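[User] I wish I could look at a protein chain and see how it folds. I have put the entry right below:
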Amino acid sequence: MSFELHVNGRPFDTTPRAGQCLRTYLRERGWFGVKKGCDAGDCGACTVHVDGEPVHSCLYPAVRAEGRAVTTVEGLASPDGELHPVQQRFLDAQGYQCGFCTAGFLMTTAALEAERGSAHDDGRLDDLPRAFKGNICRCTGYRAIEDAVRGVKHTERPCAGRAVGRNVSAPAGPQVVTGTARYTFDVDVPGLLHMKLLRSPHPHARIVAIDTAAALRVPGVHAVLTHEDAPATLYSTARHEHPTEDPDDTRVLDSVVRYVGQRVAAVVADSERAAEEGCRRIEVTYEELPYVVDPEEAMRPGAPVLHAGKGPRERIARVENNVAGEVHGEIGDVEQGFSEADVVYEETFRTQRVQHASLETHGCVAYFEPKEDGTGERLTVRSSTQTPFLTRRALCALHGLPEDEVRVVAGRVGGGFGGKQEMLTEDVVTLAALKLRRPVKLEYTRAEQFHGATTRHPFTIGIKVGARADGTLTAVRMRVVSDTGAYGNHGPAVMFHSVGESFAVYRAPHKKVDAYSVYTNVVPAGAFRGYGLGQVTFAVESVMDELARLLGMDPLAFRERNIIGPGEAMHSPIGEEEDLHIASYGLDQCLSVVRKAIAEDADDDVPEGWLVGQGAGMAMIATGPPGGHHADARVSLLPDGTYDIAVGTAEFGNGTTTVHQQITAGALHTTQDRLTVRQSDTDVVRHDTGAFGSAGTVVAGKAVLLAATSLAERLRTLAARHTGVPRHACVLGAEAVDCGGRLVTLKELYEAGHALGAAEELAADGHWGGSPRSVAFNAQWFKLAVDPGTGEIRILRSVHAADAGKVMNPMQCRGQVEGGVAQALGATLFEDVRVDDRGEVTTAALRRYRLPQYADVPRTEVHFTETTDAIGPLGAKSMSESPFNPVAPAFVNALRDATGIRFTRLPVTRDRVWLALDAHARKSGA
């Protein structure tokens, strides 16, 4: 049988494998712009053109492409390299963040534009919700994508030294829009083996026996790994600068499984198909054990104990009660505070599990490379991770390897949101690579993301507040129970963080908290945008709104009476953090933005009978994690007169690479095009804690600023020495140093440095330890309408105010806010990782889980306050996590205003809203 198709004008005649989809056929031939995001035609990241028609290549059989012309994103540009108009518009608008979905949006848009004016033009480009119903973006909030389609340009090219505060484009932009940016699996590794995991069908069981003989007989299978092959060492999958923050309760492969989906064995084979068949052939004998899926039940005497035999040595607080961690504290006397109150309000709030749903799934490739000194090989792990350095440290400790024997590198990462602050694949892949001395790859399927990765922690928050008649708070008490799932990765830390700033933002003489992180036989939770603050802020901001209503006060005025002010100490019952300061204050401006939005609000075209309401919420967050968050950076002058920036933090759409270039361009009085960045590679710098806790600007950026500033001084000194001109007369420019009228090119200066024996002056290092820290503030306001007959909710207006200090890149920062609001709206309205009574995930596909799509997300008006931080680099503060936190309470407060009903459980799905309205109407009628 002869077979031929053309891809981007090139002929290919290899016959597809039986059942092979077009996506894998294309990727195997090096067209890496075609992405894998869902396996089911849900996300659109794999969109290509077949004879000009856009198709989801993950569903399209490769054999059907015979005799057809296939175009991928790499083939959109003209042969001479000129970008397709759609690519150029996405570049000009920066219609992307991580960029993993971008090819899909580009290909969909380009195909619809090609239909303009033809008989096939059905007007979809004028109706983007319909045009993009098959495409998902998890990062942007879609406004930037709309601007790209409509031809709105945002990027600019500032002159030398003036990059900070401007809409400088991301350096990887050209690669993102042409499909040449290299993500984790966009590499061709010779001799690559593929890993698949056998997962537990039981919520709690002991493995009595594993028979791997039949699996090993499958053609192409090289190894089957079980708990007998794994190190006995216990560790945590969570990655922190200080490993002691998390319980050591995990093994690479364990003889006891504690949730449905836990890995039992790993099969390594020549192909994924052979590895999957190997998994099916493994015979496992289990002894089923009692299980518990409710955290309250898990803490009761007599409940099944998940981690029997472990305890304080593994940093588990009370193993016999399944308590991974707990915190208790009190300021003053809350009972006295309640007795002094004229009004007391008490309620219990519940939040659900949420999936990170980054479009690039977890995974890594491990392979061996020759050492530079020729003395042998070392292991390289290419991973979709936010923490290359911490992952290397953990791998070395787990497998007994010296750090110079292991390199961990992250390519461009396709979304993170905290989910990749974990070591979920690198440990077992490294085990296989070391055993076989062969390259090994493990790439999670979308289903594995749901039942084998991590989720946001579900919380139950019981909260009681009291206030005097004049609106002054007297007491706040909370009991918080966080369900950490089967393992404690991030559990105690998330619990601790959740009751910090959420308490401290309000003044009250009496505060008390009891908080617990509890094990259950459910998929583990982990780090997620906001790190616990969003869950507790939902409860705090809801009760503050309700208390204001009980007092007959304007909710904003009530907040303004009770929030902390500039220079005030931040008091939380868990104790004060000595390095945390209000180094700039914009909360008053945030609330002013909300007040202005309310005042200028106009009548909306709302169907008759619909209920209309408005509401706000606010939040405070530390601009970095406690306990130290370290970053090293090095800036060097290169032989051609350009600069190199070496930094450890990863780029996954957070925009830190752009900001690091802007900071360096300002310090060295140069332009972005004269700067290259090497990053997220343990070979590049000494150490970097990682891209989490919103640390990319305030920690790594500070290190870059220190390095660039130091290099500028060194170069001026070297220029003075080279020319004999006084140092104060040497002015650094984009391409040369003006030494009293004599221009010394940077290339000449580089050569002079070597000639003078001062090569060390051509580079400078910077380090920042993440302390002291400041705080950032956010406020969100919604106006919405509700149909009492169906529960449908329409968002009429969305306004967000952000105190980001000096905004380094308004375009990018706005995108972070919009993306955070969109993600939070998903968690507020419909996202829910559902589990059955055995703890098994039942929503293990995007179409069953329901991510926000273009039609679901309003265009949020973003306003930045005018503040300059005394701690952050050049006055900047963090703004990646914090926009998420006030969204749910603002939405629910608006819903309360419209309906008169206080919703206490997330998500507020349409059916829940209708049922509550119906019950309220029946009660009122009675």
